[in-house]
Putative enzyme related to lactoylglutathione lyase
Amino acid sequence: MIKRIVAYADGDDLAASRDFYVDVLGLQVAMEDPILGLTSPTNPTAQILIPPRGMENPPPRFGIDVGDPDAVDAAHAEAVRRGLRVVYPLTDEWWGVRRFFVEDPSGTVVNVLAHLS
């Protein structure tokens, strides 16, 4: 079950990005470490993530929260079975997500994730 799809923005100046998305567009800060996470105050599944430049290599274009760590494992197994290029290995991150990055058939890098709790 897909829980949400999250857009990524570039993180050249996180403070300026935070001010723009909060003060101009009305989003709320949901997370500031290790990346800036912003959510809609009326729809918490509408999110933007802004990692600092160079944090993720290659940087994903967007993330798909599949809802459950077992679903991350299943998506990873299917991607491998299909011979897709996994560009960031299956990892439990210290900030509480299980994820991997995979290239779609067009070369777009997708972060496939779920929260561990």
In short: The chain has one domain: 4-115. The first strand starts at residue 4 and ends at 8. The two ends are 17 Å apart (CA to CA).
